[in-house]
């Protein structure tokens, strides 16, 4: 695992450990911005489909004026470790950051893979041209 992967996993683990309440906040995410800073977020569970931790990171990055993210990971509470993004998060991450790398678990190790690898035959939304194949 590289230094930046370790730093992101550690940041997400710290947030989920500190804020998890075993009901509404069960997953944290951390992303590395182009400037080297780390942006974190915590999911907001709600029966209507509250935002996942990765989506909270996107909002947090935008709110602080961080336009580009290089890599992201999510970690579950209770020692669940690194979690792959859900389908909705994969699509949003692809739309916002098509060059993003996502840290995922292969079972034996962690890998940083391009978001496009998690979206085979996916489409990317473009505000001017609509949905376009990746």
How would you describe this structure to a colleague?
This protein is α+β, with helices and mostly antiparallel strands and 134 residues long. It contains three helices and eight strands, in the order H-E-E-H-E-E-H-E-E-E-E. Strands 1, 2, 3, 4, 5 and 6 form a six-stranded mixed sheet that branches. Strands 7-8 form a two-stranded antiparallel ribbon. It is globular.
Any low-confidence stretches, pLDDT <50, length ≥5? none
What is the terminal-to-terminal distance?
Answer: 28 Å
Count of DSSP E strands? 8
Beta-strand portion reads 25-35%
Q: Bin the helical content.
A: 25-40%
Any idea what the shape is? globular
Order of helices and strands: HEEHEEHEEEE
Structural topology:
Elements: H1 3-19, E1 27-33, E2 38-42, H2 53-63, E3 69-76, E4 81-83, H3 87-96, E5 101-105, E6 110-114, E7 123-126, E8 130-133
Parallel strand pairs: 3-5
Antiparallel strand pairs: 1-2, 1-3, 3-4, 5-6, 7-8
